[in-house]
Amino acid sequence: MTGSAWEQALFQLDQAARIMNLDPNVHEVLRYPKRTLEVAVPTRMDDGSVRVFTGYRVHHNTSRGPSKGGIRYHPGVTLEEVKALAMWMTWKCAVVSIPYGGAKGGIVVDPKSLSPGELERMTRRYASEILPLIGPERDIPAPDVGTNDQVMAWIMDTYSMNVGYSVPGVVTGKPLSVGGSAGRGASTARGVMYVTVSTLKHLAMPVDEARVVVQGFGKVGAPVVQLLHDQGCMVVGVADLGGAVYNPRGLSPVGLAAHHDETGTVAGFEGGEPITNEELFEVECDVVVPAALEGIINEKNADRIQARIIVEAANGPTTPEADEILHDRGIHVVPDILANAGGVTVSYFEWVQDLQAYFWTEDEVNARLRRIMEESYVNVLELAEDRKVTMRLAATILGVQRVAEAHTTRGLFP
Ligand code: NAD
């Protein structure tokens, strides 16, 4: 089966349902998103013309609590992709046991093609179009590919202006000045780091000799490079949309970040030699961390990956076909719904802090995040060993099981 991200997500759900003997009635409910909203986002451009962008917000499931999920600005956004990402959010929140359902949103746009003013006007109009679906007790967006803390601040302000008072808990991943949480910025990466270290230890591989390759140098990939380096790992290859760079003796995270700040890409960094994005996955290393987009590891490159471990910082980076190849080759894949759950976990902390108007220190945030990531890793690993299934299947089974239990306990309305 090669297909859309949605087909991939359904395939994973069906596979888990079969193995866990899921009640067919519950299975049927979980195969559909609860609500999907498509909106037109007319935006005044700087030259006075009006462009209409297409936006989406999807709630997959809310049995365990309000829905939660990022907003993506990317030219490749489709309703199918948003639905898949929303379903993965449902399982992810359940895997790390935080009281949320799954959602996702997006606009079909290249945000880099907009001026700051155009970006703000488009964001505010989109926020007001999805207003009926969002709210601190209903659905709480966060940043994803192409969006950031400033975009979240505009959404928070738009929502607040509509209700007439400040509602910081309507979005997470906000700047600290408007109710953001300490530690949220690097939280996804920090979670990736915790599970990478747990995996290395589980496989009895020394952390401080591990050679790592990271694809994507954005909000997740860049701090992953720094945090794994801080653990003693050696980051030997990094890629982004602009190109890739390789150094078998290790790349300097600080040098890479400075080069990226200056040029907007890791390509051309002088601390390594240029390679192609395809070659990145063929590099001799121990750990590959995909931190860009879906479907990047597929049947065309899965047999060329040299690493023993793949830690999925991105959502849906591995196709089901690639999964099978990797499994046959004995490569240990830590699935997205576990590996990148650090972001939504600290988003949950941010929301809790906003609701209580009482803020934690960064050390408190990181310590609580670490506990959740390490415990969740062990839970998934034990289930995988128990059932003799892959980590992905185990994580999906765990997520689906918790959602199914909540759904069944509440009962089907009416
Ligand atoms: P971002 O927009 O900040 O960065 C994306 C990076 O990927 C950029 O460096 C870009 O150049 C690179 N990239 C895009 N297409 C590429 C390609 N074809 N080849 C090589 N590099 C490419 O996005 P982000 O927030 O870092 O998100 C990255 C992934 O992590 C996404 O799958 C996202 O859903 C997932 N994720 C993000 C968060 C979060 O908190 N931001 C949380 C959980 C999961």
Structure write-up:
- This protein is of the alpha/beta class and 414 residues long.
- The protein has 14 helices and twelve strands.
- The chain has helices spanning 5-20, 24-30, 79-95, 116-129, 149-163, 187-202, 221-230, 253-263, 277-280, 320-328, 336-339, 342-356, 362-387, 391-410; strands at residues 35-44, 50-61, 67-74, 101-108, 139-143, 211-215, 234-240, 243-246, 273-275, 287-290, 309-311, 332-334.
- It has a seven-stranded mixed sheet, sandwiched between helices.
- A hairpin with a 2-residue loop joins strand 7 and strand 8.
- Helix 1 (5-20) runs parallel beside helix 3 (79-95) and helix 13 packs across helix 14 (391-410).
- The two termini are 36 Å apart.
- The model has no long low-confidence stretch (mean pLDDT 97).
- The structure holds nicotinamide-adenine-dinucleotide.
- Nicotinamide-adenine-dinucleotide (NAD) binds at residues 143-146, 188, 215-221, 239-241, 277, 291-293, 313-315, 340, 343.
Supply database-style keywords:
414 residues, alpha/beta, seven-stranded mixed β-sheet, 12 strands, 44% helix, 17% strand, globular, binds nicotinamide-adenine-dinucleotide
